[in-house]
Amino acid sequence: MICMGVKMNMVSNVKQGFVNYKELDKKDKFNFWKEALINNALYILLIIAVIYTYTQNQRFLTVNSIVNIVSLSAANIPIACGIAGCIVLTGTDLSAGRIVGLTACISASLLQSATYATKMFPNLPVLPIPLVILIVIIVGGIIGWVNGFFVAKFQLHPFIVTLATQLIVYGLLLMYIMINGNNGQPLSGLDKSFKTFVTGSVVSLFGVPIPNYVWYACIVVAIMWFIWNKTTFGKNMFAVGSNPEAANVSGVNVMKTTIMVHTLAGCMYGITGFIESARIGSNQANTGLNYECDAIAACVIGGVSFVGGTGKIRGVVLGVFLLRIIFVALNFLSINQNTQYIIKGLIILIACAIDMRKYLVRK
Amino acid sequence: MEKDVLLQMTDICKTFPGVKALDTVSLTVKRGTVHALMGENGAGKSTLMKCLFGIYGKDSGTIELEGKEINFKNSKEALENGVAMVHQELNQALKRNVMDNIWLGRYPKRAGLMVDERKIYNDTKKIFEELGIDVDPRKIMSTMPVSQRQMVEIAKAVSFNSKIIVFDEPTSSLTEEEVEHLFQIINMLRDKGCGIIYISHKMAEILKISDEVTIMRDGTYVATKPAKDLTIDEIIKLMVGRELNNQFPPKTNEPGEIALEVNNLTGQYSLLNDVSFSVRKGEIIGLAGLDGSGRTECLENIFGIATRKSGTIKLDGKEVLNRNSREAIKNGFAMLTEERRSTGIFGILSIRENTVISSLKKHKKHHLYLSEKSMMKDTKWSIDAMRTKTPRQETKIKTLSGGNQQKVILGRWLLTDPEVLLLDEPTRGIDVGAKYEIYQLILDLANRGKIVIMVSSEMPELLGVCDRILVMSGGRLAGEVDATDTTQEEIMALAAKYV
């Protein structure tokens, strides 16, 4: 449905654009092309990159590779959708990665197979999966609530609040994986039902199995799209992000909205943690480290701007894919790891600069 | 004794989109005199000063300093050429100390590298002694009262050897004793041969300190007279002397029963002090007064976005608490704020989102989602009823003109179905045509029995639209006048009662 919407929009945009274009004079036409080129630079670069990578390495566009890109992106979508809300409020969330780590370890510890030798809770039966999902969502939600509470109540910048909470969460995580004589060992030996639930497959594409978590990511996207576009909370969130003073005058509960955005983000990190837990299989203290960086980058590339009050779920999904395609392409081109970091950094810089152009007031 | 001319501004014009802010205004400041610049809010005093300092570029006219034509590009350049300003709102680095603030940006260096702390300390000390200011140059700005910080600002102007010093409402936050001290300093500067431009609303003060008075009105020059030949009444007459013409729709509303009673309203953090009044159904009440007289604070206290210390509000005989904006909206209040851009519109959101934000509850279906269709319907109603000019509902509100933005916000509030509308400067920054439409909307609302309380700095507007006018002064209610048989002079005199 979202894809259709995009298509329809594009068709009508192109039609309208053509009519307008005919009316321009020569200098304006040049400007038109310049603007079009800069505003779509990201997509143009992406297409060039895909074509170039394909010519260098034909395996880049095999079904296998495409399913790989899709599933890697899907794993990142919940965390990006969560953090996007914080960015809409002109904030950020540095604690996302650590919350993913904590919830991943909790999921793993609760779903280790009963026969595994070094089980963390030896006497605990394998819990029902919905219960575990609920637990990690609640754990993530509570930490998110704390973030939101300090941001809203004490007017602290989210950067500071989440900088502090990510340390606290990391401490809790380290303590958690020490209990019952586990001594910080990686949590593995996950129950088969858990692995099947997340990484198993019910649908295949040309014989390549699509992992289940791709569908879970789709559900998350649908729910988030609904929340952002169809609920009072969503409208209030954009209002607060756009102009908190005006929102207050207009009767929006700014504090409640801010807390809820952060809580929802925490819940999303919980879901990410749950999926990552099964996807990685062996969970340790460093699981989730720096996930927030990729998530923030994806949001910004997708047009969720730090200006606040603007952004679309569609953009977040697009951003996640875009970033992933480029990461995978760099691997296919066998560019060495160190250079990859530089290229990633440059992409984020350029994307933000292009995004910011839209909001600059020209004098 | 004839004194020679220091600053000569001739035929200055400045146009903003839709408004002629300055129309051939001239100002002559002589050496060793205090020249008062007077006029109502919006008469063009600050615009004229901004043209002098190059904050705005003037459209035409010339500015001469000591016979040489000047054209400053910014206030820094003006300062370096001996033209300084002591602002109403002090722009200072509050976390730094006194001497840092005075020498900021031009520290004397030692060995071309280190700031010469001793030299700036001694220089500061010397200026302070000269002006009779008793402040330690090493004190941190934020620990000092406003009056002392103002002295620092004056000392800074002196340190630049300024020939022209502009004072913009310098006494608005000073006690009487501090005003005395300030006047001593101003007199000292005058005796040194400086030309002082003194902007103030306070008539008594003007007559006491100034040598000459120039009066402006609606962006035009009215007169320049020696202060000793003027009385307060004459100044008021020159300031407001204009005819009311046909810029208002005919008044058709008929006030009914008393519906809103405000008793002893006092603000916790604002200067609002013991304000009581009552309003009838279908009545339009004006709140007049100078800037900072507590008009906005009064509305904010009623609407619950400013903290109340004491006082009660009754609507239809029932006490309403209005502890925050949500409660106020539920109780049937609506508030249009003064600063449209900073507290009114959501610039990057669409007109539809801007319209429905305060009435989202109405569009909820099955307690779950918002109906797009119903929101579109309401937005369409608002656009039609307000005659908002916009291509589409999805247009971003920041691309509209001020008048159309105001209509969107008014529409937003009408959709909450309010009984009491609190309008703070509803026509500020709006062109004349749109103003008339807004007046008509206000009258229509009153005709339907709504209560309208409207703050405005434009007196003709208050006289033309309101039934009664409450005049505020220094946070208190200075008096109440009937809009049909009062004069601008009477309102002005009341507005100056507690300042």
From TrEMBL, chain B:
Its EC number is 7.5.2.11. It catalyses: D-galactose(out) + ATP + H2O = D-galactose(in) + ADP + phosphate + H(+). PANTHER family: CARBOHYDRATE TRANSPORT ATP-BINDING PROTEIN MG119-RELATED (PTHR43790), GALACTOSE_METHYL GALACTOSIDE IMPORT ATP-BINDING PROTEIN MGLA (PTHR43790:SF7). Residues 7-243, 257-499 form the ABC transporter domain. One of its GO terms (biological process) is monosaccharide transmembrane transport. GO terms for cellular component: plasma membrane. Keywords: ATP-binding, Cell membrane, Membrane, Nucleotide-binding, Repeat, Sugar transport, Translocase, Transport. One of its GO terms (molecular function) is ABC-type carbohydrate transporter activity. It is a peripheral membrane protein. Part of an ABC transporter complex involved in carbohydrate import. Could be involved in ribose, galactose and/or methyl galactoside import. Responsible for energy coupling to the transport system. This is Ribose/galactose/methyl galactoside import ATP-binding protein. Belongs to the ABC transporter superfamily. Pfam families: ABC_tran. It is found in: Cell inner membrane; Cell membrane.
